[in-house]
Write a structure and sequence with these properties.
Shape: globular
CATH class of one domain: Alpha Beta
Strand order of the largest sheet: 6-7-8-3-9-10-12-11
CATH topology of one domain: Rossmann fold
Number of strands: 12
Order of helices and strands: EEEHEEHEHHHEHEHEEHHEE
Largest sheet: 8 strands, mixed
Helix content: 25-40%
Length: about 350
């Protein structure tokens, strides 16, 4: 296969809010706005940001659990957003999801064998022996005993349940796995086991991961590249090591500075970010981070910054640190101008 395994182009999701009978306009929350990125086979792209920035919405859009308002999701060169239900069903074998909560994501009435083999039986019939062999092999692959095939989810610990969820995702031999906060509900020691398991599986099977997390320690451990989201948009996308060594966007700086350091003798420099996350009902125009940004200039108030390539393979949306040469420094004078401010509400 030439080109990236997954390519996302201008992905957008708007949620209209309820309106009364006499209201002529319906307010809209722009959960995801013009998001683009790609993922190669065997690569891990991490998506980070504050709660409500649109990370989980991106995961649902990639899986086609919800339909996008605009944009495309290209998997192995095929636009899966344009497929009908029957055609999309076949493509679902190539992408699977590991959910955040290992307790509610498993059917409590099914055994481990049934949970693991259920996805495959949606596409082909298996004999009793085939189901048992498959379940035992996958349990072994995720570091669990094959003798556990007859246990119910209530008989497993939280870490074992998440391993069971990973085994279920592997049953269809996907090329892409979306992991939405896959370790956030686990203890730190169990988190390390699951992260090491995912890294080993990736090395063995060349699986690509889109790993969604708010924990920067986890991201730094597992990621190859990192996309930083704020209010539905990507503000910085960079290889993992350069991003943590020298963040460029002020919001990325603030996120990294806010992460705790497990060393009482080290103190991180504080990044002055004031104010609260803007309201999704009346968001700021231009760069949505400008009301909280310590380096904002006049242009930030009225023009949405584009993602601009800079050194070390990263792209950044910032008028000050990654200025685009084709954007004027003064406000547009005509309401018909292509630079009319775009209002970006906060994500769901």
């Amino acid at each position: 296969m030439s080109g990236p395994l997954l390519k996302v182009e201008n992905l957008t999701k708007h949620y209209p809010l309820g309106a009364g009978f006499l209201k002529k306009t319906v307010p809209t929350v722009r959960a995801v706005e013009d998001v683009s990125f790609s993922v190669d086979a065997g690569e891990t792209l991490c998506i980070v940001g504050e709660s409500g920035c649109g990370k989980s919405t991106v995961a649902r859009l990639l899986m086609q659990i919800v339909e996008p308002t605009g944009g495309r999701v290209m998997l192995e060169g095929t636009d899966i957003t344009a497929l009908d239900t029957k055609a999309l069903r076949a493509w679902r074998r190539k992408m699977q999801m590991v959910f955040q909560d290992p307790y509610s994501s498993l059917n409590p009435r099914l055994t481990a064998e049934q949970i693991i083999t259920e996805p495959l039986e949606n596409f082909q019939r298996l004999s009793r022996q085939e189901r048992r062999t498959l379940a035992a092999d996958l349990l072994r692959k995720v570091g669990m005993s094959p003798e556990m095939v007859d246990r119910l989810p209530s008989e497993f610990s939280g870490g074992q349940r998440q391993r069971l969820g990973i085994a279920r995702a592997l049953a269809l031999q996907p090329s892409l796995i979306i992991a939405d906060e896959a370790v956030s509900a686990l203890d730190v020691s169990v988190q390390a086991q699951i992260l090491n398991l995912l890294a080993d599986l990736q090395q063995q099977m060349s699986i690509a991961f889109v790993f969604i997390s708010h924990d920067l320690r986890v991201v730094e451990h597992i990621g190859h590249r990192v996309a930083v989201m704020y209010l539905g948009r990507i503000v910085e996308l960079a290889p993992c090591e350069p991003l943590f060594a020298k963040p460029v966007h002020p919001y990325t700086e603030a996120l990294i500075a806010a992460a705790p350091i497990p060393d009482p003798m080290r103190v991180r420099a504080q990044v002055p970010v004031e104010g609260e996350v803007p309201s999704p009902i009346s968001p700021p125009s231009g760069c949505t981070f400008h009301p909280r940004c310590p380096i904002a200039v006049e242009r930030c108030r009225f023009v949405v910054p584009p993602l601009v390539p800079i050194a070390d393979g990263r792209v950044v949306a910032c008028h000050v640190r990654a200025p685009a040469t084709d954007i004027p420094a003064s406000p547009p004078t005509s309401t018909n101008s292509s630079l009319t401010p775009v209002v970006q509400p906060q994500t769901l």
